[in-house]
Amino acid sequence: MYTLQKVIARLNDTHRLNAPEYRQLLLDDDARNDHLLHSLARDAALSVFGNGIFLRGLIEVGNHCRNNCLYCGIRYGNPNVRRYRLSREEILKCCAQGYSLGFRTFVLQGGEDAAMSDEWLEGLIRSIKEAFPDCALTLSLGEKSEDSYRTLKAAGADRYLLRHETFNPGHYARLHPEEMSRDNRLACIAALKRTGYQTGTGIMVGSPWQTVDDIVEDLLYIQELHPEMIGIGPFIHHKDTPLGDMPDGSVDMCIKLISIFRLMNNRALIPATTALATLDPEGRKKGILAGANVVMPNLSPACVRGNYALYEDKAHSGAESAEGLDELKKELQSIGYDIVISRGDYPGDNNDKEKCIM
Which of 135, 132, 116, 126 is nearest to 153 (CA)? Predict the structure, then answer.
């Protein structure tokens, strides 16, 4: 047995490696080892979740943002963005549409927008949970105080996704303005865990100046954090940002990392992201066959989807949209998977409803 195959087998058995082993795995380009890694990760996901893929209805609530991250298309300093902010009624209408299609989790994603105050969000969350009591609600609204996180959790939010993007402080500083810090981002993630959310984090793969050693640091951080959700996707440039001429990230490295994270935590909720599908038409299928178990079709009003452009040419139609659910089902069935009607909670939680194949 090849030495690296022994490393992969140990990750499968013990769910952890040390830094040199992760580095060796990331640098390896032997297709036989990749095949073993993806196969074991796929089996690990199947052993916990079967062939069911969880649906998340993505609602992009607004593209106003106070931050000026150098890679993001909706950064405060981009004058070419057509800004919008959905009303409570519009968001509830998106949820109603999603519920009728079988969605039992809604994801509210948006920029860090002061107009969406804790009070406003608290009322919105309570309205959604009252109207759809059997649904889970995930928030992805950026950095907030621990008190804010507690307020939104008490209102009914179940999950919170806050990708740390990169653990290395020097790398983080090169991608963000001075007023943002890696330490504050990590403190927010720790606060989410303390507050009782099903917590998600993740990285941007292939971001400018990222090294293999940076990714190793990310792996070790996530290994110890043990989040319930792990979201990763390739860096994709946006022309109206300071990093608009930088090359996009690697789909193959993303797929490898999905498998590593699956073997690290076989119960994790790991999406095959829109960014994967944007760079590679087969990206979603590749992600699922590498161990991903979540897809997030877009439930936002069609008239604003193009304005939530975090990166260039973001996919938001076809199988990436609520209207394309039949197309998505066929795509998943072509590789032996089905969509399930379920909240899709992290295994071990007892509030998941009975799963129903669509």
Answer: 126
Phi, psi values for residue 302, rounded to 5°? -55, -30
pLDDT tens digits, one per residue of 188-201: 999 999 999 999 99
Portion of the chain with pLDDT greater than 70, in percent? 95
Whole-angstrom distance, CA of residue 357 vs CA of residue 292 = 18
Per-residue tokens: 2: 């090849």
Classify residue 330 by burial, with Cβ atoms within 10 Å: 0-12, 13-18, 19+. Answer: exposed
pLDDT digits (tens, 9 = 90+) for 135-146: 999 999 999 999
Q: DSSP state, 110?
A: E
The model's pTM: 0.95
Contacts of 253 by beta carbon, 8 Å cutoff, 6+ apart: 26, 205, 206, 234
What distances in angstroms separate CA 221 from CA 162, 293, 325, one per listed residue? Answer: 14, 22, 35
- Sequential DSSP letters for 232-274: -EE----TTSTTTTSPP--HHHHHHHHHHHHHH-TT-B-B--H
d(C-alpha 220, C-alpha 239), whole Å: 32
Give 303: exposed, middle or buried? Use CB within 10 Å, 0-12, 13-18, 19+: exposed
- CA 331 → CA 49, 188, 282, 324, 339, distances in Å? 18, 37, 10, 11, 10
